[in-house]
Q: What sequence folds into this?
């Protein structure tokens, strides 16, 4: 039986392949290198996120009609009056999510699978006849079916599987389906899909983007049949330039009927268009000498047979013919030529070998460390016993094992077991490895008959106590980048969002692979990573955001702190650079002062990281902050940081939000007052601590241990780092870094401490907290106002309030000092969130913006050298920063094409992926 026979239901129509495409490019898997433009649709020559970056992964049957049914005797019924199901629909399930298209791996996208698709068959009046689950299946027989106007090929492919768990309507209106129900085995039906003509919009943007053509058939399923192939014959194209592609073939000896499935064999005149005219085609038998014995014309082929009959042609044989073909090869000839030419034929020994499922995901830990499939072999359409099948294992990676050969049993079947061990992490940002194993008849002619495609995941041991920062965020942020459609529901890179949806996230993670309830990302996870995320979600009393338990954790936290400081500088500079020369001078002075302190903080964190034996990473190939976006690390996840020209709104909503002061709780009360005063320490010109009051330093340690900040604020982050420094240095062995890597900045605002021990490290961290989040309290403890020691928040608030912050006669802090005027006319109309790649390729604006980005990239590269053993090169880095600012100012004279009167601003981009 199977779909390739009688009885059969045929259908045709349109489907949507709403696949996500940003995940098709391996470099995009690197969280550090990911940029916002990778989520934009392609605008050649910029590939961006290719043709459908915001795809949901859904497979939708949008308008698929039953075009005919074939009765058991072969009669074709093409009117609903003959059978009520004709003119009805093949439809998605109306009670659960759509099925999904799923790639095996970005480096093997040619075996995409269908998961979670449940189908319904409705008659012409909309009455449900049945519903069943399409068992997961991989794409097969991919070829180029049409040539597009640009010369690109347009592919076609097939999916063969079974409908399982079929639930029939109590009162079936269709006689054909009643017959099929009686004939089929259990609750299973055989099904074949031919897919082609998917519009990708590369040539031109059409409303039909992501939509394509589906044609197929449903038939009975016999016990013992393979699910993903017809164990019959294989008619192969005569040569690479032949007009037809390979075709499955089956000889029904009982009815003496030959079925030839040409549904994926005939070229189309255009994408999703009519098929090319072929034939007339005739079926012949080839004897041992190669002589042809005519068996008859392939019936049913006309201008509509693809949609009407799913491209399946038939030939009725006489008894003598049926007997003769049992030991003869079959072929199809084109009888329209003067000398009929063979266009399809079985191979020389009339064998066909195919695995019943050939795509596998293996994880190197029981019970996931092996996979099994059955290879079916036939000769003349019957099981080929004792046939030796070879597998090409010569190029297999050492971590993946497969047999070199297997031999079929009496039933023509051979079992193949694949096993995997930990492959390590050779691709770094993409889990595991991929491999293809070709197979075919041992010693047979030509290339492999088929391939087994394997993804072997890297082993991932679940920590005893996973945290968001160390264990979960690196995994989920990758998928937040690659599947931007998820962001419309919730942000996978935001711990609060993930926890708010924890129940659904966990259910998705633990759902069976075939379930439609997986998010686009969760089926792609290895069991080890899945278990880590689940364990984090289950942590009581609450999943931890960050815990610094080791020196490696501390180095990682300091690297994130360095990035936080880096990320604040471009937004402040963007506002500063947008001010016209000679305008808003008070504001310019305030912002410039804050920028210098942020640069000092960045340098200070670099010194801290070097002191504990870390390696600061500034610029590429590490992470470079992008905009609009969140700050790096675990801080302020709800804040979107943007690049905008100077405005009171930008200062209030972004700058003040970044620097929002947090008075920690100490002893159950909000802390007010000083922790350590300037008289308690003595610092040299190079930032070295010459002397410090031991009691004051111990008080500072006690304060860090006692202070409780609101989680995920910048103060909380640095306080956690300070606590880790105290805890990890208890043995006095934390500060192992090379002192020669410490950077000095004699003219820095405040002190750029040379960090050599716990004392200097805590002083440095305390200064960062106070300069950034410092409150307008008496910092030095002398009872007098400290206007010069105001934190960044209050300096920015002076801009918003339009007055300097002073202490009045009553000792209260009030905005009643000198005016801080803001003149909107003194600001260039720079475009919001400038992005070099949003500018037309080849334009002056694009060229000059790219040059500005290049200077920014060089400045970051230079700073990376400064903090990695070349502190003497600081002047070069400063020079490049000035060069970048000169180029940024030049951009202000260039109008944004189509930008409504705005001008180009610096994008502060440093592309890490180049094509």
A:
């Amino acid at each position: 039986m199977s779909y390739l026979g009688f009885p059969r239901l045929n259908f045709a129509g349109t489907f949507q392949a709403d696949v996500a495409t940003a995940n098709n490019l391996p470099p995009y898997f690197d969280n550090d290198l990911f940029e916002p433009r990778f989520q934009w649709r392609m605008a050649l020559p910029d590939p961006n996120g290719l043709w459908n970056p915001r795809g949901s992964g859904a497979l939708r049957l949008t308008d698929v009609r039953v075009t005919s049914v074939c009765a058991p005797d072969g009669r074709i019924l093409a009117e609903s009056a003959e059978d009520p199901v004709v003119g009805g629909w093949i439809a998605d399930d109306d009670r659960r999510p759509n099925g999904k298209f799923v790639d095996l791996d970005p480096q093997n996208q040619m075996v995409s699978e269908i998961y979670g698709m449940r189908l319904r068959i409705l008659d012409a009046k909309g009455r449900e006849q049945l519903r069943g689950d399409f068992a997961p299946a991989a794409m097969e027989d991919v070829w180029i079916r049409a040539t597009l106007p640009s010369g690109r090929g347009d592919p076609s492919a097939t999916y063969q599987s079974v409908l399982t768990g079929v639930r029939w309507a109590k009162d079936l209106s269709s006689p054909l389906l009643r017959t099929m129900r009686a004939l089929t085995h259990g609750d299973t039906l055989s099904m074949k899909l031919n897919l082609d003509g998917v519009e990708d919009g590369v040539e031109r943007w059409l409303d039909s983007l992501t939509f394509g053509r589906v044609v197929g058939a449903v038939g009975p399923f016999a016990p013992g049949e393979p699910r993903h192939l017809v164990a019959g014959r294989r008619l192969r194209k005569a040569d690479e330039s032949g007009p037809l592609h390979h075709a499955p073939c089956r000889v029904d000896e009982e009815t003496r009927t030959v079925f030839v499935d040409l549904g994926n064999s005939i070229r189309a005149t255009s994408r999703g268009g009519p098929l090319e005219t072929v034939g007339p085609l005739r079926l012949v038998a080839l004897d041992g000498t190669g002589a042809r014995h005519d068996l008859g014309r392939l019936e049913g082929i006309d201008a509509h047979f693809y949609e009407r009959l799913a491209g399946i042609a038939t030939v009725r044989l006489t008894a003598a013919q049926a007997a003769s073909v049992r030991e003869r090869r079959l072929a199809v000839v084109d009888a329209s030529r003067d000398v009929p030419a063979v266009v399809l034929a079985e191979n020389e020994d009339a064998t066909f070998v195919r695995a019943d499922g050939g795509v596998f995901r293996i994880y190197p830990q029981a019970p996931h460390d092996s996979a099994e499939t059955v290879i079916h072999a036939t000769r003349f359409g019957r099981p080929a016993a004792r046939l030796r099948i070879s597998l090409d294992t010569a190029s297999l990676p050492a971590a993946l094992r497969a047999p070199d050969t297997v031999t079929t049993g009496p039933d023509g079947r051979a079992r193949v077991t694949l096993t995997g061990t930990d492959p390590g992490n050779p691709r770094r940002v993409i889990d595991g490895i991929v491999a293809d194993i070709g197979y075919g008849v041992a010693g047979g002619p030509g290339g492999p008959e088929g391939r087994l495609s394997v993804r072997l995941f890297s082993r991932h041991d679940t920590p005893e106590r996973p945290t968001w920062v160390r264990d979960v965020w690196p995994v989920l942020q990758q998928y937040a980048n690659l599947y931007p459609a998820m962001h419309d529901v919730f942000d996978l890179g935001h711990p609060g969002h993930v926890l708010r949806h924890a129940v659904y996230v966990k259910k998705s993670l633990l759902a069976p692979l075939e379930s439609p309830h997986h998010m686009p990302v969760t089926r792609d996870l290895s069991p080890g990573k899945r278990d880590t995320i689940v364990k984090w979600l289950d942590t009581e009393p609450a999943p931890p955001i960050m815990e610094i338990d080791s020196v490696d954790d501390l180095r990682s936290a300091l690297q994130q702190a360095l990035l936080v400081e880096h990320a604040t500088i471009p937004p402040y500079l963007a506002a500063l650079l947008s001010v016209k020369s000679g305008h808003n001078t008070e504001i310019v002075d305030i912002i410039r002062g804050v920028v210098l302190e942020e640069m000092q903080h960045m340098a200070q964190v670099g010194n801290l990281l070097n002191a504990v034996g870390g390696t600061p990473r500034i610029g590429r190939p590490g992470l470079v902050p992008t905009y609009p976006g969140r700050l790096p690390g675990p801080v302020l996840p709800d804040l979107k940081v943007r690049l905008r020209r100077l405005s009171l709104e930008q200062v209030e909503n972004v700058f003040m939000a970044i620097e929002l002061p947090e008075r920690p709780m100490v002893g159950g009360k909000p802390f007010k007052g000083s922790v350590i005063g300037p008289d308690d320490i003595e610092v040299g010109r190079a930032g070295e601590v010459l002397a410090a009051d031991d009691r004051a330093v111990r008080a500072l340690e006690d304060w860090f241990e006692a202070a409780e900040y609101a989680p995920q604020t910048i103060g909380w982050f640095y306080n956690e780092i300070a606590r880790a420094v105290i805890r990890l240095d208890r043995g006095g062995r934390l500060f192992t870094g090379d002192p020669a890597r410490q950077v000095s900045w004699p003219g820095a605002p405040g002190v750029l401490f040379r960090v050599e021990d716990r004392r200097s490290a805590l002083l440095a961290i305390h200064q960062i907290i106070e300069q950034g989040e410092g409150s307008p309290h008496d910092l030095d403890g002398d009872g007098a106002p400290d206007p010069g020691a105001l934190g960044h928040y209050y300096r920015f608030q002076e801009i918003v309030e339009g007055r300097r912050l002073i202490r009045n006669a009553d000792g209260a802090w009030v905005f009643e000092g000198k005016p801080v005027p803001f003149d909107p006319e003194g600001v260039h109309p720079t475009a919001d969130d400038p992005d070099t790649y949003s500018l037309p390729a080849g334009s002056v604006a694009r060229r000059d913006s790219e040059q500005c980005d290049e200077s920014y990239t060089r400045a970051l590269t230079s700073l990376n050298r400064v903090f990695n053993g070349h502190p003497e090169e600081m002047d070069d880095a400063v020079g490049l920063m000035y060069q970048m600012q000169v180029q940024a100012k030049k951009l202000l004279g260039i109008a944004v094409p189509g930008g409504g009167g705005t001008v180009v601003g610096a994008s502060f981009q440093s592309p890490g992926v180049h094509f």
Residues 224 and 713 are 62 Å apart (CA to CA). The first strand starts at residue 8 and ends at 18. Confidence is low (pLDDT under 50) at residues 776-785. Residues 551-577 form the longest helix (27 residues).
